[in-house]
Amino acid sequence: MIIIGYSGHSFVACGILIACGKSVTAYCDFEEKNNNPYNLTFLGSENSEEGHEAIMNSEFFIGVGDNMIRQKVYDRLSGFEKFPVNAIHPSAIISENAFLSKNGIMISAGAVINPLAKIGHAAICNTGCIVEHECVVESFAHIGPGAVLCGNVHVGTGSFVGAAAVIRQGVRIGAFATIGAGAVVLKDVADNEVVVGNPSKCIKP
After folding, report:
1. Which pTM does this prediction carry?
2. Which CATH number does the domain 91-197 belong to among 2.160.10.10, 3.30.930.10, 3.10.20.30, 2.40.50.140?
3. Are strands 194-196 and 178-179 parallel, antiparallel or unpaired?
4. Are 132 and 117 contacting, i.e. CB atoms less than 8 angstroms apart?
5. 33/41 Cα distance (integer angstroms)
6. Top-level class of domain 2-78
7. 63, 82, 157, 196: which is deepest, by most CB within 10 A?
8. pLDDT digits (tens, 9 = 90+) for 138-151
């Protein structure tokens, strides 16, 4: 199978896919990488003739950490009725009553997804994060390592919750918002806002 994007975040994704028994053989990126820890074959970008043809005929995963870029790649390939596989680490703890998209989610080692939580397309639940009961993580959002979403939190499309941030129960985070690492969020966050600190404050409306 093929990984799209090949740098820090995708290295973790490769490890998860391999742990799931997948054979990752090649990567697509804009340039060939000197740092190639998995000894993958370079195919060019996903828009190149070789890269596009390979993706059309293989399983693939979008290993891009940037939420907006990941969404653009997903949208472009879904136009060809091609959708990424999921990468779910075997050590993740996922309730049988959680609802997971089948298209391109990444759930890293030690993450916890509790009952009635919903994870959208190509969302990321990074190492050791906790997504509590009835939370919604919309498509293309990213929950950082060690972050905690208390019950019934809603994270909007493309939003980023930084490492070790804590979101109080029932809080709603809008689309493409950014929650800084270690922030403690006690109230709703609007679309595109950037909030940091404990308690969190908006630094970019």
Report:
1. 0.96
2. 2.160.10.10
3. parallel
4. yes
5. 10
6. alpha beta
7. 63
8. 999 999 999 999 99
